[in-house]
Design a protein that fits this description.
Blueprint: E1 3-7, H1 9-18, H2 25-34, E2 39-43, H3 53-62, E3 67-71, H4 75-84, E4 88-91, H5 111-123, E5 128-132, H6 136-144, E6 149-153, H7 155-159, H8 162-181, E7 185-189, H9 197-201, E8 208-211, H10 213-222, H11 224-235
């Protein structure tokens, strides 16, 4: 049974839009935890557009469930991760102009740099996941980097319908099977919502789904605790 990681970035986005102290993503994390979330995910971006350094530090202190820190592969973020020591780090691509993460890491182009960061983090007892495209080649490269986990990019699957969605689902399924055969723990995320997440959660061996935007959007209408509970029930 896949577990649920709740990404609370968009709570911080709303706060930063007005420059207020509310809504506080710390409060959101506590509510999500009470509602049954298995993990809290935050992305500390270089431009600090939503989550702030203060948020990461406080979450690490108060959460009773794991904290997954998404971050770009930079010396600044590595330093922060080593100081905060989250329960895990997910390395993601990051571009200033993008609205949200647009795809998986380019593993071939950045292999040496990524491997160095993976090694440093895991030598400091911080497990690492790599946000990648659902291809066998990416799974093999992740294994060669000695990463413990992968997060399969489900953005394309989430945007498609019909046969095209089925085709992308098959890519995710086969990548998951291949990754598990290599000894990698498999997560998935990006674009998943109340209509398409269950299919991904049913993939044999799928460990965790990281979901943010759809949960926070639904929470605006029904409240965060209900939104988390309904997603938890759906993928369980």
């Amino acid at each position: 049974m896949a577990t649920l990681g709740v990404n609370i970035d968009h709570v911080a986005t709303l706060r930063q839009q007005r420059g207020t102290k509310y809504p506080d993503p710390i409060d959101a994390a506590v509510l999500a935890q009470m509602a049954g979330a298995d993990q809290i995910t935050v992305h500390l971006r270089e431009d600090r557009r939503h989550i702030q350094d203060r948020d990461v530090k406080l979450l690490r202190e108060i959460l009773q469930i794991p904290l997954n820190l998404e971050m770009g592969n930079t010396s600044e973020m590595l330093e922060i991760a080593l100081a905060v020591k989250p329960d895990m780090v997910t390395l993601v691509p990051e571009k200033r102009e993008e609205r949200t993460t647009e795809g998986g890491l380019n593993l071939e182009k950045t292999f040496d740099s990524l491997k160095k960061t993976v090694d440093i983090l895991q030598e400091n007892s911080i497990p690492v996941s790599l946000f990648v495209e659902p291809t066998k080649n990416d799974m093999l490269l992740c294994k060669k980097m000695n990463a413990q986990m992968v997060e399969l990019h489900t953005g394309k699957y989430s945007e498609l319908t019909g046969e095209l969605a089925d085709k992308e689902y098959e890519c995710i399924l086969q990548a998951s099977i291949y990754a598990q055969n290599l000894g990698l723990i498999v997560h998935s995320g990006h674009g998943l919502n109340y209509k398409n997440a269950q299919r991904i959660a049913k993939i044999p061996g799928m460990k965790d789904l990281n979901i943010g935007h759809s949960i926070i959007s639904y929470a605006v209408l029904v409240g965060l605790e209900r939104a988390v509970r309904e997603m938890k029930t759906l993928i369980s």
